[in-house]
Amino acid sequence: MRFxxxxxxxxxxxxxxxxxxxxxxxxxxxxxxxxxEPWRLVTSIFAHENAAHLLANLFGLALFGxxxxxxxxxxxxxxxxxxxxxxxxxxxxxxxxxxxSGAIYAILGALVVLRPWMQIWVSYLPxxxxxxxxxxxxxxxxxxxxxxxxxxxxxxxxLGIGVAMGFVWKKRFGDPPRRKNKYDPKLERDLDRWEDxxxxx
Length: 201
Prior knowledge:
This protein is mainly alpha-helical and about 200 residues long. It has a single domain (about 5-200), classed as Rhomboid-like (Rhomboid-like fold, Up-down Bundle), CATH 1.20.1540. Helices cover about 65% and strands about 5% of the residues. α5 packs antiparallel against α6 (about 130-145).
C-alpha cells in the first residue's frame, strides 16, 4: 500500500474521533493493566491528548513518513512505526502514556542515517537532517532531567531504534545513485532499479 504514512495519519484521526465518543481511557497505555488489556499497546500509539498534540504528530508523520517511504518503501515504514511504537510502550518507564511521537522519532532516526543531508527546519532554523538529529537528541536528554508531561524517554527510544534500523537498511541497499542537473538516461535507470529494490523487498 503506497502512502502508508497518510494511512497511519488517517487511523490517528479516526482514533481521536473515537476518543470523543467513548472517552480516552480505553485507548491509554496504563501499565497496571497493560498485559490484561494488551490492545492498549497499539491503541495508545494512535491516541492523542488534544487537537494540538494530534496535529503536531500528524505533520511529522505525514512529512517525514512520506520521505522515508521514498527510500525504504511503505512496508518498512509501516513496520518501523508499529514495532517501534509497541517496543517503546512495553519498555516505557511512564505509568500512563499515549501518542505517536515515539514511533515518529523512529522514522526521524532512520532518516538521520538514510537522508543525512536533507535540509529541514528546526525551531525556525534550516539545518541538515543529521544536525537536526543531534538537536533532538540533546533536547530530549536535557528534557528527561526536567519533570514535565512530555515523553522524552520515548522520543529517545524511538530515535535510537530508527538510527539502528537506518544503518541496517543502509548496509543492505547502500546509497542511491546521484542525480545530475541534466537528464541522464542511464542514471535514471540505475535510480529506478535502486528504488524498485526497496519497494519490492
